[in-house]
Amino acid sequence: MPSSVDDYEVIGMVGKGSYGTCKKIKRKSDGKIFVWKELDYGLMSESEKHMLVAEVNLLRELRHRHIVRYYDRVVNKSTATIYIIMEHCEGGDLERLINKCKVNKKLLDEDFVWKILHQLALALRTCHRCKVGRTVLHRDIKPANVFLDSTNDVKLGDFGLSRILAHDSSFAKTFVGTPYYMSPEQMNNELYNEKSDIWSLGCLMYELCMLTPPFLAPNQRALKVKIQQGRYRRIPMAFSDDLNTIVSWMLTVQDNKRPSIEELLNDSRMERHVQKLD
Ligand SMILES: CNC(=O)c1c(C)[nH]c(/C=C2\C(=O)Nc3ccc(Cl)cc32)c1C
Fold it and tell me: How many Cβ atoms from other residues are within 10 Å of residue 142's Cβ?
């Protein structure tokens, strides 16, 4: 029997996700805690709705310990709202963690940064390998889309929906935000590809070390120039040359010179530091 919103009780708000409201919910049958993301599809065209259904079906296929688990979806036709029911991540998102470091003027531990890099690379490998007949690109890797569970392990969230919702006319009109993590190829209106996810991963790792994105500018035109030049300050000297080298490799302007996810995972520097953690 299909699920209904009445099967759940809303017990709190976890935040405004990139493309919708996220609420903390409790399943009435067993008291288990989840999050649902509410998406208004009322202004979507028929083709956008079909794309949304296809992307949500794809979410169901993405099973990995470092990818936010998708559990179910509920459609309320009377309000044209789809509720996507997903794993609750008690640790919140990396955006909150970075802001906490800024307030406390305290850098993250290097071992923790390597752990985040390794776990996100494992999550992306699952997506970049041909899964369900095609590669799944995240398209929106950023601190607000990476979450921590109760044991401070990483969960990559908000998959795929970015493409649909970025096309959604109602969404496109309202989406605001500076594209700090946009790759040079995207700035040149070239095709988004796996190496674009690697660029965004590099921006995220840089920001975890530096507590600011690698490329900052007062407006999008100036930001585009900075990203295409690809110049940025080294991460703080508190972090090793190994980590600086890996981050710089991901932030290579030419996408074909950036590492693949397999090259990242098999790199001796990654193996050295991650082995240290295991
Ligand atoms: C202040 N908010 C939080 O600490 C927080 C917590 C405890 N959880 C979250 C967010 C999610 C969460 O817990 N599970 C999620 C699944 C998908 C998406 Cl897009 C977001 C989440 C957040 C933003």
Answer: 21
